[in-house]
C-alpha cells in the first residue's frame, strides 16, 4: 500500500474552456475575425459611396495634367505637368524644409543645451527661458506668428534689411548670393570627393597604428589639410572657376541671387526654434546622465579638460542623446506638414490639399501621403536601431 | 597667576569672498569665457528688453472701443479686451454663456479636493471626473433637453473648444491606450500583439494633419449612406485614435517598469488575467505613468490648434479669424501674443505639475 503513495499523479487536465492555450487561440481568432469583418464593412461602404458619387478608383489620375502653378519648385514644373509631378514637387519641398530645419535645430539645440549647463548664472537662466518659452507654445501658433506678424511686417524691398551687399531681408523674402560654377569646377569637386575618401583611410590607418604602437597622430589637422587644403590648391590652380551672383535691387524687387520665399523662411525659422528647445533638453539630460565619477576618473588619469570632454563625456552622452534626437528629427519632419497653414507648397499642401480638392480621389491621395510619412518614420527608426546596436555598451 | 585664555575676535572674511561681489564673481565672471558671455548677454538684454517692455506695457493701450483708441504707438490690447468673449467662448449665444462657466467652475471645484492629501475618496472622485462629468458637461453644452435650449456644435469655439478637444481626446484615448498597451504586451497571443503593434506604429508614424484630413474627407466615405457625423465629432474621432497610440506607448512603459515578481506573485496567488491586471499590475503601472500621461496631454493640448485646418475655430482659429476684421487693421502681433500667452500659461503650469508629480511619485519607489 505504501507504494501507491509515491506514485505521482499527473494533475487533472483542465477543462477545455480553462486551458490558457485554447483560450488564447479562440480569443485571437475572434479578434482577427472582428478586424477583418470591420475592414470588409468599410471597404464595402467606401466602394458603394464612391460609386454613388461617381468617383473612379485607381491611380490613373496621377498622369492627368494638374492645371495649377506651385510657388516654389526644385524641379521644372508648370501648369501642364501631371499630378504625379505635383507629388514629386511637394515631396522635394517637404524634404528641403525638413533638412534645413534639422540642420538649424541641431545647431541651436546643442548650443542652448550646453549653455543650459553653464556655470554662468545669467547664461544658464537665459537658456532656461528660451527652452521654457518656446516648447510651451504650439508650433502652429509660432509658424503663423513668424509668417503673418513678422515676415509680413518686414520692410519693403527698397528699405530691405541688409547684411553687407550680399544678404537682404524684406517682405518678399530673403535674398542670398548664389554660387555660379564656372568651367572646370568639376575638377575641384572631384578632388574634394577623393580627399574625403582619403580621409576615411587616413583615420583608419591612424587608429590601427595607435592601437598597435601607441603613437598618436594628429588626425584632425591632417584631415582638415587633406579635405580643405588639397581641393583649394586645385581650385586656385584651375583659375578659381567660381563667382557669386549677388542679388541686386532692380525696380521694385531684387534680381539675381538665391531667393528664399517668406513661407520657407518663416517655416524654417519656426520649426528650428521650436525643435531646438526640445533638442536642448535632450542634450542637457544626456550630458547630465554621464556620472560625475567619469569626469573625476578622467582628471585622475591626467587628461586635459578638452580631452575629457572629447574622449570621456561626449561619447557617453551621445549614446543617451542620439535615440531621442532621432525621434525629434522625425517629429520635425512630420511637423513640417503644418506648412499648409501658411501656404508653403509641401507634400500635404499641394497633394493632400489642392490635388485632393481638384480630383476628389480622397482614398488614394491620403493613402499615398500617409505612406510617405510612414516610410520616412520607418527609415529613421531603422537607422535608430542600427545606431543603438552599434553604440550599445559591450559588456564583458 | 593664571591667565584666562581670551581669543581675539574673528577677523571678518575678505570682502571679495562673501556677499554680492563674491556671488557675481563666482557666477558671472569666473573666467574670461564667462566674462565675455556675461557681457554679451547683458548687452543683448539691454538692447532687446526695454523696447519690448515699452511696447507691451508702458505705451500700450488698454481701454477703448475701437482701433482709433490705440494711438500711443504701443500694443493695442483694446483689441483683445473687445474680443475676449469670442476668444474664450466662440460663437456660443451670449445669454447661454453661464452654461460654459458652470462647466468650468464645476470642474475646478471637483478637481480641487484631489490636491489635498487627507481627502479619502480620490479614486472615486477621479473616476467621476473622467467618466461621468464629460457626459454631464456635454449635455450642458449641447442642450436640447432638460429645458435647455440647444446650441449646435458649429457655435462652439475659442478656448472652450481647445479645452474640450484636448480633454475629450485624452479621456477617450485612455481606455483605448490601456487595451492597446496590454495587447502589445500579450506575448502568448502573436496575432493580437502584431495587430496592436501595427495600429500603434501606424498612428505614431503619420502627422496629425493627415489624420485630420483623413477624418474629414475619408470618414464620410467609410460610413453607410445617410449616416453623417458633424465636423467636431469627426475631428474628435481622429484625435482620439491618434492620441490612443501615444497613450499606449506611455502605458507600456509603465507596464514594463513593474518588476517581474509582481506578475509572478499574481500568478502564484492563482489570479486570472483580468484580476491579475485589474488588481495588481494596472494600479501600480498607471500610478507610475501619470507624469507621462500629463506630458502627452500637453502635446495634445498644443496640437489642438491644428483643427483650424478642418475648419474648427479653437483659440488660435478665433484669433486668426478676428484678425481678418477690417475694423481692426494691423493687430496681428497683439492677437498672436495673447494666444501664445494663454497656451504658455496652461502648458507651462502643467509641465511644472508633471515634474513635481514625478519627483513626488519617485520617492515611493526609491530603495
Account of the 3D structure:
The complex is a heterodimer of chains A (396) and B (367). Chain A is an alpha+beta fold and 396 residues long. Chain A folds into two domains: 17-54; 83-177 and 246-391, MetI-like (MetI-like fold). Chain A contains twelve helices and eight strands. The longest helix of chain A has 34 residues, at 20-53. The relative contact order of chain A is 0.12. Chain B is built from 15 helices and no strands. Chain B is globular, with a radius of gyration of 28 Å. The relative contact order of chain B is 0.08. With 367 residues, chain B is mainly alpha-helical. Chain B has one domain (79-357): MetI-like fold (Orthogonal Bundle). The longest helix of chain B is centred in the C-terminal third of the chain and has 34 residues, at 332-365. At the A-B interface, helix 2, helix 4, helix 5, helix 11 and helix 12 of A face helix 2, helix 7, helix 8, helix 9 and helix 13 of B.
The CATH superfamily of chain B appears as: MetI-like
Instruction: Please state roughly what percent of the residues of chain A sit in beta strands, choosing from under 5%, 5-15%, 15-25%, 25-35%, 35-45% or over 45%.
Output: 5-15%
Strand content of chain B: under 5%
Rounded mean pLDDT of chain B is 85
Count of helical regions of chain B? 15
Question: For the terminal residues of chain B, how far apart are their CA atoms?
Answer: 62 Å
Q: State the low-pLDDT regions of chain B, or none.
A: none
The tally of strands of chain A reads 8
The H-and-E topology of chain B, N to C, reads as: HHHHHHHHHHHHHHH
* Biggest pleated sheet of chain B: none
CATH superfamily of the largest domain in chain A, by name, is MetI-like
Task: Give, in order, the helices and strands of chain A.
Answer: HHHHHEEEEHHEEEEHHHHH
The CATH topology annotation of the largest domain in chain A reads as MetI-like fold
Derived from helix and strand composition plus strand pairing, the structural class of chain B reads: mainly alpha
Number of helices of chain A: 12
What is the class of chain B in the CATH system? Mainly Alpha
| Integer-rounded radius of gyration of chain A | 30 Å
- Please give the radius of gyration of chain B in angstroms: 28 Å
Q: Using a beta-carbon cutoff below 8 angstroms, give the protein chain pair with the largest interface and the number of residues from each chain.
A: A-B, 55 and 51 residues
CATH overall fold name of chain B: MetI-like fold
Amino acid at each position: 500500500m505504501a507504494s501507491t503513495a509515491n506514485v505521482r499523479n499527473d494533475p487533472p487536465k483542465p477543462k477545455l474552456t480553462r486551458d490558457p492555450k485554447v483560450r488564447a487561440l479562440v480569443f485571437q481568432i475572434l479578434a482577427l475575425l472582428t478586424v477583418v469583418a470591420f475592414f470588409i464593412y468599410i471597404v464595402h461602404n467606401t466602394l458603394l459611396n464612391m460609386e454613388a458619387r461617381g468617383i473612379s478608383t485607381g491611380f490613373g489620375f496621377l498622369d492627368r495634367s494638374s492645371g495649377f502653378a506651385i510657388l516654389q519648385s526644385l524641379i521644372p514644373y508648370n501648369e501642364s505637368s501631371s499630378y504625379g509631378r505635383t507629388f514629386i514637387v511637394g515631396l522635394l519641398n517637404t524634404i528641403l524644409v525638413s533638412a534645413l530645419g534639422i540642420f538649424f535645430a541641431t545647431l541651436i539645440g546643442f548650443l542652448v543645451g550646453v549653455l543650459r549647463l553653464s556655470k554662468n548664472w545669467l547664461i544658464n537662466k537665459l537658456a532656461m527661458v528660451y527652452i521654457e518659452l518656446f516648447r510651451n507654445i504650439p508650433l502652429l501658433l509660432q509658424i503663423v506668428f513668424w509668417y503673418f506678424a513678422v515676415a509680413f511686417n518686414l520692410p519693403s524691398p527698397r528699405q530691405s534689411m541688409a547684411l553687407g551687399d550680399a544678404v537682404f531681408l524684406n517682405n518678399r523674402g530673403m535674398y542670398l548670393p548664389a554660387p555660379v560654377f564656372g568651367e572646370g569646377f568639376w575638377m575641384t569637386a572631384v578632388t574634394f570627393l577623393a580627399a574625403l575618401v582619403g580621409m576615411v583611410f587616413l583615420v583608419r590607418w591612424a587608429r590601427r597604428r595607435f592601437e598597435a604602437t601607441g603613437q598618436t597622430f594628429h588626425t584632425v589637422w591632417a584631415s582638415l589639410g587633406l579635405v580643405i587644403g588639397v581641393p583649394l590648391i586645385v581650385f586656385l590652380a584651375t583659375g578659381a572657376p567660381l563667382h557669386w551672383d549677388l542679388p541686386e535691387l532692380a525696380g521694385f524687387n531684387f534680381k539675381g541671387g538665391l531667393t528664399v520665399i517668406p513661407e520657407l523662411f518663416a517655416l524654417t525659422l519656426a520649426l528650428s526654434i521650436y525643435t531646438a528647445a526640445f533638442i536642448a533638453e535632450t542634450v542637457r539630460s544626456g550630458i547630465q546622465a554621464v556620472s560625475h565619477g567619469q569626469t573625476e576618473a578622467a582628471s585622475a588619469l591626467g587628461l586635459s579638460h578638452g580631452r575629457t570632454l572629447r574622449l570621456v563625456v561626449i561619447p557617453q552622452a551621445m549614446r543617451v542623446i542620439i535615440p531621442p534626437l532621432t525621434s525629434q528629427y522625425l517629429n520635425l519632419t512630420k511637423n513640417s506638414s503644418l506648412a499648409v497653414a501658411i501656404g508653403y507648397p509641401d507634400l500635404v499642401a499641394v497633394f493632400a490639399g489642392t490635388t485632393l480638392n481638384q480630383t476628389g480621389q480622397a482614398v488614394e491621395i491620403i493613402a499615398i501621403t500617409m505612406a510617405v510619412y510612414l516610410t520616412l518614420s520607418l527609415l529613421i527608426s531603422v537607422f535608430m536601431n542600427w545606431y543603438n546596436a552599434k553604440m550599445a555598451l559591450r559588456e564583458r | 597667576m593664571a591667565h584666562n585664555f581670551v581669543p581675539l575676535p574673528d577677523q571678518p572674511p575678505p570682502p571679495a569672498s562673501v556677499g554680492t561681489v563674491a556671488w557675481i564673481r563666482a557666477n558671472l565672471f569666473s573666467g574670461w569665457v564667462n566674462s565675455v558671455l556675461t557681457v554679451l548677454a547683458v548687452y543683448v538684454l539691454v538692447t532687446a528688453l526695454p523696447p519690448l517692455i515699452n511696447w507691451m506695457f508702458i505705451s500700450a493701450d488698454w481701454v477703448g472701443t475701437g482701433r482709433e483708441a490705440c494711438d500711443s504707438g504701443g500694443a493695442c490690447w483694446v483689441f483683445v479686451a473687445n474680443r475676449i468673449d469670442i476668444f474664450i467662448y466662440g460663437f456660443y449665444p451670449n445669454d447661454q454663456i453661464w452654461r460654459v462657466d458652470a462647466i468650468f467652475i464645476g470642474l475646478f471645484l471637483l478637481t480641487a479636493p484631489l490636491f489635498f492629501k487627507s481627502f479619502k475618496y480620490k479614486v472615486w472622485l477621479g473616476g467621476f471626473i473622467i467618466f461621468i462629468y464629460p457626459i454631464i458637461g456635454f449635455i450642458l453644452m449641447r442642450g436640447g433637453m432638460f429645458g435647455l435650449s440647444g446650441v449646435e456644435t458649429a457655435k462652439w469655439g475659442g478656448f472652450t473648444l481647445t479645452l474640450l478637444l484636448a480633454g475629450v481626446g485624452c479621456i477617450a484615448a485612455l481606455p483605448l491606450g490601456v487595451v492597446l498597451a496590454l495587447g502589445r504586451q500579450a506575448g502568448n497571443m502573436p496575432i493580437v500583439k502584431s495587430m496592436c503593434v501595427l495600429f500603434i506604429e501606424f498612428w505614431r508614424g503619420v502627422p496629425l494633419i493627415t489624420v485630420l484630413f483623413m477624418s474629414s474627407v475619408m470618414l464620410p466615405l467609410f460610413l453607410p449612406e445617410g449616416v453623417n457625423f458633424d465636423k467636431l465629432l469627426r475631428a474628435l474621432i481622429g484625435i482620439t485614435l491618434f492620441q490612443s497610440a501615444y497613450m499606449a506607448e506611455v502605458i507600456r512603459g509603465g507596464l514594463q517598469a513593474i518588476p517581474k515578481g509582481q506578475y509572478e506573485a499574481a500568478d502564484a496567488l492563482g489570479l486570472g488575467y483580468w484580476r491579475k491586471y485589474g488588481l495588481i499590475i494596472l494600479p501600480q503601472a498607471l500610478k507610475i505613468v501619470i507624469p507621462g500621461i500629463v506630458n502627452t496631454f500637453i502635446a495634445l493640448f498644443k496640437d489642438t490648434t491644428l483643427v483650424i485646418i478642418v475648419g474648427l475655430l479653437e483659440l488660435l482659429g478665433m484669433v486668426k479669424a478676428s484678425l481678418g476684421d477690417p475694423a481692426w487693421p494691423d493687430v496681428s502681433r497683439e492677437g498672436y501674443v495673447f494666444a501664445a500667452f494663454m497656451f504658455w500659461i496652461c502648458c507651462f503650469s502643467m509641465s511644472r505639475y508633471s515634474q513635481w508629480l514625478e519627483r513626488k511619485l519617485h520617492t515611493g519607489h526609491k530603495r
